[in-house]
Amino acid sequence: MAHANDRLFDHELARQVKLKKTRALVDKRMELKDAVAEYVEDGDSIIETGFAYVRGPMAANWEIGRQKKKDLVGIHTPGGLTTIFHEEGGLKGSHVAYVGVEMRGLVAPFRRGVEAGTLEVYAEWSHGALAASLRAAEQGLNYVATKSMLGSDMLKDNQYVKVGEDPWTGEPVCLVPAMYPDVAIFHVHHADMYGNSRIWGLSVNDTAIAAAARKVVVTCERIVDTDDIRANSPQVIIPWYCVDAVCEVPYGAWPGDMPGLYYFDRRLQERVIRVDWKTPESTKAWVEEYIYGTANHYEMMELAAHEEGMNTIEYVKQLEQFATSAAYYNIGTMGTGADRDWKYEEVAKRAI
Fold it and tell me: If you placed Cys at 136, which of 178, 211, 286, 345 could pair as Cys (CB 3.0 to 4.6 Å)?
């Protein structure tokens, strides 16, 4: 089989795969464990969805690690938590626009892999160029011309983007090829049994990714009736004919943010990024305990929040109520939910 990077820009292969997909309304409900086993193969390219840890498919990411998938190629648009499995053999290399956890710090296993030369960076991308690459695939184009990446050093580290000449103006442009990832996993608010998926808030690149990817798994907070989906069709971001499997996974974005439902578990994220993954030894111990040592996402949640239990879940739900109400009324800390306490004890910013 061709290397994941060769498949990534293979227009004809992508066309063949998509022509074989059924457009019939068939029941695609599966357990997450079964969906990962069937649709994520060793050596696949897998693209991160959502926006970093906002609506990221965290339960699915952990399940991929739990099943010890090997030699995956990550596409970070942004994100980076799949890089945690590099030192376990799970991630071979990456296409990178951004890898990190914002103010919580860098993802240490990724940094260690790049510095040691054990994790290959196949290409560096600007956010704009990577989005354009996915849009080209969505629209059936072989490539698009853009100014993004011109004048930057990223072109030195990207063999796939070429510099050409605009035939009308003679100006230089970047010719960005259409990208077709092997696998995309989305976490959405609601989906029906066929795969029609509702997203509240920004969809970022997800509409393009759903059309571009060869295999698509949807995890959702709740599976709803198709009549419910039809009654709110403007919120349906991913159509059924792109989707291969639908998995109901409440809290599937935890410890990330799920807009309108629950907020980041900031304390847990900081502890993991700044302390638990600081060294190869501590990272391995964390993976052994929280990933290999648990049967599913809910066992992991229970273990990670064992000191406070459901208080942790209720806390992040309350914070999200506060955040969404304040944003809706555009009045800062006033309005519904303004009495919610945002204060917490920040985990020390230790060097990683």
Answer: 178
pLDDT at position 337: 41
Q: Are 133 and 177 in contact (CB under 8 A)?
A: yes
Whole-number Å distance between alpha carbons of 89 and 67: 12
CA atoms within 13 A on the CB side of 117: 0
pLDDT, position 329: 45
| pTM for the structure as a whole | 0.92
Q: What's the gap between Cα 266 and its chain centre?
A: 18
List of residues 6+ apart from 164 with CB closer than 8 A = 145, 172, 173, 174, 175
The model's pLDDT over 177-225, given as tens digits with 9 standing for 90+, comes to 999 999 999 999 999 999 999 999 889 999 999 999 999 999 999 999 9
Q: Whole-angstrom Cα distance, residue 3 to residue 150? A: 28
Q: Checking DSSP bridges between strand 183-191 and strand 197-198, what pairing results, if any?
A: antiparallel
What is the spatial distance between Cα 206 and Cα 186, in angstroms, rounded to a whole number? 8
| Architecture of the domain made up of 4-248 | 3-Layer(aba) Sandwich (3.40)
Please, are residues 203 and 169 in contact by the beta-carbon 8 Å criterion? no
- Every domain of the chain and the residues it spans: 4-248, 266-329
- pLDDT of 310 reads 65
* pLDDT single digits (tens) 84-110: 899 999 999 999 999 988 777 788 999
Question: Is the CB of residue 291 less than 8 Å from the CB of residue 59?
Answer: no
CA angle 252, 74, 152 (to 5 degrees): 120
Query: d(Cα 212, Cα 219) in Å, to the nearest integer?
Result: 18
- Residue 94: strand pairing partners: 74, 121
